[in-house]
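Incident log, entry 3
Record: MarR family transcriptional regulator (149 residues)
Problem: checksum mismatch between cached and fresh output.
Input:
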Amino acid sequence: MHDALLDIIGFMSRPEPDVALMADMSMPLERALLPLLVRIDRRGPIGVVELAEVVGRDYTTVSRQVARLDELGLVVRRAGARDKRVREAEVTELGREMADAIDRMREELVGELMADWSAAERRDLARLLKRFAAGMNHWLVQRKHGDAE
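Fresh output:
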């Protein structure tokens, strides 16, 4: 299973699909910014420290990249709702449109890869992956709060 997960992560991290998408966009975007934009769209508003943890990058790098997304008008940064000292990022309408385009492109790719799968197989895979992801997120929350030993 570990090998399969590494293969999936490796495939989804390859530059080719993102490069093709950027070529079709009127606003070119550095490839490293795409995963951040999608995560901010999904989890935003989100603080830069939390975003850096989610994407596995250095805080200073993510801060610089979020600033670039802000300059491009894809996100806005503002004081956090709960803690005014925390700078949170949230997608703009333009950012949401771009994140939606990324989602559509990736869904088309997965659709091609699963063209010979039945609807039931697709549903089962989606259900099991969501369950697995929920378990991983639960484990992370426990680790973060010191509940797991």
